[in-house]
Amino acid sequence: MDAKTLEGLQVKVNEDYVLKLQRCVPKPGGSIKEILACEVEEAYRLAQPRAIWTELIVKEITGVVVKLEGGFMLHAGDMAKEWGGSRLLAVAVATIGSALEEKVDELFAQRDFAKAMMLDSVGSAAVESVADDVNYAICQRAETLGLKTSPRSSPGYGKWKLTDQRVLIGATHAYRIGVRLTE
């Protein structure tokens, strides 16, 4: 199957999630509330949400290794056990673009640490919302095929090696949505 690009996605920032990332009390007041509101608006302005996903045939699962069509191999740790018996694996990459991260870097350089850290957390929440939309599309596709889905997971969760990001980017041709993996 060719990779499917999802365009026209809408970022939805869950402010409670941002505050959890910031380790704030559930409903802060004063300057924290103002900074949060400001940086949420900045994220909406800067975000360029895109995603791409594809389905790959599962060739074999042995221990923590998942062998997929196209010669792709994941070292998925405990997720390999979760996927035991699977025929297909949907792999996806989501992004909000680089502008928000560049703005965070600029704020840090200006020593505006409160705004920088808040915008960084807002960016994490924004990309999570994009990942949720991709997950919804994948679940809808699975339903049309009469398949069940497992919980969404990513390299770096549990014992799934972060180095498998390279595999996901290659399998989805994520360069089509502007994603490049850095060292």
Write the layout of secondary structure elements.
Elements: E1 4-6, H1 15-21, H2 30-46, E2 50-62, E3 65-68, E4 73-75, H3 78-82, E5 88-95, H4 99-109, H5 113-145, H6 165-172
Antiparallel strand pairs: 1-2, 2-3, 2-5, 3-4
Helix pairs in contact: 1-5, 2-5, 4-5
| Main sheet summary | 5 strands, antiparallel
Shape: elongated
Number of strands: 5
Count of DSSP-assigned helices: 6
Mean pLDDT: 92
* Helix content bin: 40-55%
Strand-residue fraction? 15-25%
Name the helix and strand elements from N-terminus to C-terminus, one letter apiece.
EHHEEEHEHHH
User: Measured on Cα atoms, how large is the radius of gyration?
Assistant: 18 Å
Structural class designation = alpha+beta
- End-to-end distance: 29 Å
Low-pLDDT regions: none
